[in-house]
Specification:
Chain lengths: 536, 351
């Protein structure tokens, strides 16, 4: 049976392989080749002679590194809370922390600016505005959920008995954490760090709006050359550099993830109590960091003139002259795209994760690295690549409806793969044997042992894939699309580029609706775990 | 189900899903390339394009031409995409290239000449391409706006008033490297001041703030969005928009335009070279110049129609201010100097 299974997995690998080849490798290779093809490394060499490019490269790395470390530091207590809560509370917390993820940068930047002004941080000694701190704080805001959820769901599956034994044997709380818990969490920490790093590495709006006009990164420089100056050669040279850097980083992360395959797996909830100080500190971090900016957006959505009310929300059903349809239609379009993108991401990502963990040969490494790359690839590279590579029948996707959900799923797949792989890898062979010895059929073992564990990673990935699509990240920004299927973030953006108090209020109301949908959807997706066990 | 069966089921359902996708795709492709019968024309636009569906329906009814809209990002993104896909264009007609980007599009040989009958209604000042590769459709002025109740001194009347110490810390502009109004305002200062480099040196000394885009300037730092600054680079259409979309009905616009700071942006449409339907594409250009469409552009896109026939909506007639002699530069001059100008601007203002 073992060989059959392995062969089958290798066969199924065709789906992610074709997906990756057509929608990522081919377009990106085409666009990079067209830009720098004949000239080799010369354009990159020329670029590296300018201080501006060198500064941008250095800044890209250190801001992404700092963002990752800061996010880990602030989000780990959150992950602990999730890991130790009841399933019901877990679902709520997970849904709640995922909300920031869908907010468009321009809305978040506006909320942060307002907070900076309110607390006097826009100028003077404590200035945050247009500093690297503003960038870091915003990156933590967006990526908090990634760490909390990836690590939290892994953590809740850890066997707490070892920690308890350590405590009984006299180890302090800190020592137990650093020597017992942290090493066990390493695979999930590596996976989460990789995602946060790549997101920060390719961050665009946050750098431009919150970092101020002097900050530049590889990503913003690619945009400047390729889009603003139509200097495709320089743009492609930087895109190639970005790809190589991201490839190296992902390789490192997957190595860390694999380093110590841990085989502790039965969810065994502990009653270890964390100190009150820890709980208060964590609650405070979540409230200020996530709560305040979200609060600003909600307040703005309710503001009507000098009073507050629901007028902005009611108005979303009426078409405004600058939109092709009422904002509610845009919400519907976004929902359809998000469902389709999530299905694609789940199909491709689940198979790929199984291949990475159970498959044989080089293909596992190709998937492990390749399917994570889109997360760290410039939206310009992917968009322009699709534009010039997929432009002829049978694959003229440029004006197809499908290109939007496909591009969304390109960013969703890495989430499914990265969250599933550490979880799948952890499923303990000894557990299978134990179950079999106790008389369970192989089928029952899979249903009652493997599936609950595997589905945990899958659902985390699915909810991120959904949120990515609803919030439209990266890849889609540079893909032409049919105007009749305007999405909610696009509608929001159009509203925000029109003056007038009412319009701005409606834009904020639309942002709140987006947040509510994602919060609700994540909650529903998570609840599926309870009822869906064993059916698939 | 055992794992192999489950995996097989998963694979099959994914494959089915993929087949469903590809089926639909091929259907759309054949739709657009069909030569006989009713023709579909793809109109490539920037993201700010908007049109009443009823106008498109009426056009389809009288001509048999269905217009399909393709949004391609902002103007800069649309032009780079079109240059990349020249020869195998994204669509049949492009709308939205403006005079600051025009030369780049012309150099990229994106368009086929088309002489529109509707041009007879368009003043010659808008017809800046002598060989009719592009047709003017609308214009809009980029101007410094100020909030009437919030300015510290008298209402500014000249560009040089912006460097007056009384207006210190009041102005917010966009980076011309990343923003279309930002670039237009830089061009206005190049055309409208004796020494633009000195002007920007003075502006910097007077505490000008720079944002990457219009939204973070207007809604982030300008007083309209709760910011602290009373002057912003925006559009001549912003004061009427503030009236149209005020939370409480207003008699007067809360903001005004500094007429000496206005740069004229003219937006054009053109038939994309390589289209299979040049005749129908031409009719779409005529549609964009028709009275019905021209009448609709103020409310749907916050720009002014080029056609003499068009009528401005009431709010616009009452609250929109247009400069008699806005600044404007030759597209070829802009293209030849743009990178140098913006590099210099970065040194002066951000360096």
């Amino acid at each position: 049976m073992g060989r059959d299974r392995s062969r089958l997995i290798t066969g199924a690998a065709a789906i992610p392989a074709v997906f990756l080849a057509i929608f990522f490798v081919y377009p990106v290779a085409t666009v990079v080749w067209r830009g720098v093809g004949g000239e080799g490394l010369t354009p990159l060499g020329d670029l590296l002679e300018s201080a501006r490019t060198r500064d941008a490269i250095v800044f890209t790395f250190w801001q992404a590194t700092l963002s990752t470390l800061l996010t880990l530091a602030l989000a780990l207590p959150g992950a602990a809370v999730i890991a130790r809560s009841s399933p019901r509370a877990q679902r709520r917390l997970r849904a709640l922390v995922t909300i920031p993820f869908v907010l468009p940068t321009v809305v978040v930047a506006g909320a942060f600016s307002e907070l900076f002004t309110t607390f006097g941080l826009d100028d003077g000694d404590l200035r945050l505005r247009h500093t690297v701190w503003a960038i870091l704080i915003a990156h933590v805001f967006f990526n908090y959920a990634v760490v909390v959820r990836t690590v939290g769901s892994f953590w809740s599956g850890l066997d707490a008995r070892m920690e308890e034994q350590a405590r009984v044997l006299g180890a302090g709380r800190l020592r137990t954490f650093t020597q017992i818990t942290l090493p066990q969490l390493r695979p999930a920490l590596a996976a989460a760090s990789a995602i946060v790093f790549l997101f920060s590495f390719t961050s665009f709006g946050v750098i431009l709006v919150l970092g101020g006009p002097r900050q530049a990164t590889i990503e913003t420089e690619i945009y400047r050359y390729a889009v603003v100056r139509t200097d495709f050669t320089s743009g492609a040279a930087l895109a190639a550099l970005q790809l190589v850097a991201v490839l190296a980083l992902v390789a490192l992360a997957t190595r860390l993830e694999r380093a110590r395959p841990l085989t502790l797996s039965t969810p065994h909830r502990t009653t270890v109590r964390r100190g009150r100080i820890g709980r208060v500190a964590n609650g405070l971090a979540i409230t200020t960091l996530l709560g305040l900016p979200i609060g600003v957006v909600i307040e703005r959505s309710l503001a009507v003139g000098d009073s507050h009310g629901l007028a902005n929300f009611r108005a979303l059903g009426t078409r405004l002259s600058m939109l092709p349809a009422p904002a509610t239609d845009a919400i519907r379009n976004s929902l359809v795209y998000a469902v389709v993108a999530t299905v694609i991401a789940l199909c491709v990502g689940t198979i790929a994760a199984l291949v990475v963990v159970h498959g044989r040969g080089a293909i596992r490494h190709v998937f492990d690295l390749g399917l994570t790359l889109p997360l760290g690839t410039s939206a310009v590279t992917i968009g322009f690549g699709i534009l010039i590579a997929l432009d002829e029948p049978p694959l003229d996707l440029r004006s197809s409806w499908w290109i939007v959900p496909i591009a969304h799923s390109l960013v969703g797949v890495p989430f499914v793969v990265r969250t599933m792989v550490p979880v799948l890898r952890r499923i303990d062979p000894a557990l299978h044997e134990a179950a079999a010895v106790l008389g369970a059929s192989p089928r029952r073992v899979r249903r009652e042992v493997d599936l609950p564990i595997a589905s945990r990673g899958m659902l985390v990935g699915a909810s991120f894939a959904f949120a990515v699509s609803m919030g439209e990240f990266g890849a889609t920004a540079f893909i032409p699309r049919r105007a009749d299927t305007l999405t909610a973030p696009q509608a929001l953006f159009r509203l925000l580029t029109t003056p007038g108090e009412l319009i701005r209020g409606q834009a904020m109301a639309l942002a709140v609706v987006l947040m509510a949908i994602v919060g609700l959807a994540v909650f529903v997706i998570e609840s599926a775990r309870g009822t869906g066990e064993g059916t698939f | 189900m055992t794992r192999p069966t489950r995996l097989l089921a998963l694979t099959l359902s994914c494959a089915l899903f993929a087949v469903a996708c590809s089926d639909d795709t091929s259907a759309t492709t054949t739709d657009t390339t069909e030569a006989a019968g009713p023709v579909t024309i793809t109109l490539v636009t920037h993201d700010s394009f908007a049109v009443e569906a009823s106008l498109l329906d009426a056009f389809a009814e009288t001509t048999g031409i269905t217009i399909e809209l393709l949004s391609a990002g902002d103007t800069g993104q649309m032009i780079s995409q079109s240059i990349l896909s020249a020869g195998n264009p994204l669509g049949d007609v492009m709308y939205g290239v403006d005079n600051t980007f025009l030369q780049r599009a012309l150099d990229g040989e994106l368009f086929e000449p088309y002489v529109a009958a509707g041009l007879s209604q368009v003043p010659t000042e808008f017809q800046i391409d002598a060989s009719n590769r592009v047709t003017p459709i609308n214009f809009g002025d980029v101007c410094v706006n100020f909030w009437n109740d919030a300015i510290p001194g008298d209402a500014p009347t000249a560009l040089t008033d912006l460097t007056d110490p009384v207006n210190a810390g009041q102005l917010v502009v966009q980076n011309p490297e990343s923003s279309s109004p930002g670039l237009a305002f830089l061009l206005a200062t190049i055309a409208g001041t004796e020494d633009w480099e000195q002007f920007w040196t003075d502006l910097r000394a007077n505490g000008v703030s720079v944002t990457p885009d219009w939204e973070s300037a207007y809604y982030g730092e300008f007083i309209a969005g709760g910011g602290g600054r009373s002057m912003v680079v925006s559009y001549a259409s912003s004061p009427p928009a503030e009236v149209m979309f005020a939370a409480e009905p207003l008699d007067e616009a809360p903001s005004s335009v500094l007429l000496d700071s206005c740069y004229r942006q003219i937006e054009f449409a053109g038939v994309l070279a390589g289209t299979d339907h040049p005749d129908e594409a031409g009719r779409v250009i005529e549609f964009l110049l028709s009275k019905a469409f021209q009448d609709s552009v103020p409310e749907s896109m916050f720009v002014f129609p080029v056609s003499d026939e068009a009528e401005l909506p009431e709010v616009w007639a009452a609250h929109a201010q247009l400069a008699d002699a806005p600044h404007i530069l030759d597209p070829a001059e802009i293209e030849a100097n743009r990178d140098e100008w913006t590099d210099r601007w970065v040194e002066i203002v951000l360096g």
